Task: structure prediction
Amino acid sequence: MLPGTNSALFNIPKLTDDGLNWITYKERMLTVIGARGLMRYTDGHKVKPIPFVFDTLTKKLKKPDGSEPTESEVEDLDDKIDEYHQKDSLIKQQIFSTISDQLLLHVQRLGSASKIWDEVCKIHEGKTELVQIDFDANSKR
Result:
């Protein structure tokens, strides 16, 4: 049985403002996301389901082919949309709970978890190359 979403296993240290712990933070974050089975929400491979269109003339929903969806189809799609938002929000919460308020304010407007994660990565990837090079040089001494 997998641990619950509130498990201490999913707690990771905060990303420092200077990003010096980026390498270990990123590895821990991706491991937690993978353990939850949500990696597709982070890497952008999970696409948000498209809702049916409301036809203002007929006052009914329309499928992409123009036909009217059954009640079961509407419920199934609503469930898929709800599931997408719930899982995307789990990733955002995992990220938001481990970054500074300043960084959160910078990335929150991006919407999806994959866009937010991409931005956090973009901001920190270059910063840690020098730290990694310095660490490697010091460890060889």
Summary: The chain has five helices and two strands. Confidence is low (pLDDT under 50) at residues 131-139.
